[in-house]
């Protein structure tokens, strides 16, 4: 049944071709022939000869010979006994008629059919991919497996299905040195699977290299490499990965370097303890409307509420009748940082207009690295002397610029200010006292942080009969035994055990809670 259907289709195709050819006015069915050409099988350029009788073509140079395709005149083809095709395409098929002028019976038509040959299709190598790498050492053997799927046509002759091996462009014909095993099987209608196994015995270094398996001008390459030689692929990949990681780290650091510095400072930074300072920062500014609002409503609340710093302003605790320079020295000696709001109004002060350089350099004697805050837009209104002085001492200053987008707590301004401020020490207990002074190695009773733990009752036995008096903690269940009071003989006044010479140098401002130091009996 299938053969009958194929025969009917073939006959119908021939009938359609013949009918289409005969139906044209220039085609004489008595002088007509078919010619089939497969793409990729004919040598180029292809020539289609005029099938007229050679006797009629004698002297064709003097006789005019014309060509037509599907009854359409072909230009620039007069006087030639053949048609030449530089390339063959499916569009080139049709009825080609050669006509001798002056003799209407001297015509002949060739119906040219151009088909895509299955044998000209490129093979499909299995597995797909480029160069296949194999490893071996001298004295070992490596098997190369070349498998290709080929398209074939049983009716077409000279269909290439053989796999050819070569090395460095030279064919491997000596199968004694290179044993070869070839097999093939049908993979479907019009498809043929061909497999070739090449055994390469590596006896010397020249056996390493690239081997090619080719069919129909298409090849698949195999590279045999010496495994004794270390490969630099891993090192190159590691270098590329390292460069990528460094690039990512650079991008992350450029965008998050302030957060990284803050984390490192809050984790591994040094505490500024036991320095005798009462405040973390002293703020110097001009008491006008704009600067006062910026200090009291923006800067000071953020430092005290967000970061829990102790801040002192330049209008607090000023000594009566003191000079401004003495106030500055006094306040700076009690603060760890100096913050200057260097606004345009600040520069209009008398000491700034008279000798700003001398006063500015004097700040470095009070604080090694002052923090200067400038308002955005006011820097260009400063004089050239002020700008030059700031540029010269830029490495000794921490210059911050307040902009319109610095209001948010996560802005660059607050991060840079936190980096310039001392590291804070936070305790979870509310009764721990001042974190900055809790670790001070000072045994003076006025600086003892937790006086509630000590018992302030008078000594029951001043003569010391029951031994030295130790602090009695409140959480003890028992109490000291009460002994009868002994008569105290009159004694000469003895000098006080407390050395009063160093009380002037001690800083008792750090204490906000006190307890009884002198009993009624001592009075």
TrEMBL record:
For this chain, the family text in UniProt reads: Belongs to the interleukin-1 receptor family.
Give the GO molecular function terms. Answer: hydrolase activity
What's the name of the protein? Single immunoglobulin and toll-interleukin 1 receptor (TIR) domain
Keywords, ordered alphabetically? Disulfide bond, Glycoprotein, Hydrolase, Immunoglobulin domain, Membrane, NAD, Signal, Transmembrane, Transmembrane helix
Query: Which superkingdom, per the lineage?
Result: Eukaryota
| Chain ranges of the Ig-like domain | 40-109, 123-230
Residue ranges annotated as transmembrane are 234-253
Q: TIR domain: which residues?
A: 277-421
Q: Which gene encodes it?
A: sigirr
Record's keyword annotation contains Thylakoid? no
**Segment forming the signal sequence:** 1-20
Q: Which Pfam families match?
A: TIR (PF01582)
| Alphabetized InterPro entries for the sequence | Ig-like_dom, Ig-like_dom_sf, Ig-like_fold, Ig_sub, Ig_sub2, IL-1_rcpt_fam, TIR_dom, Toll_tir_struct_dom_sf
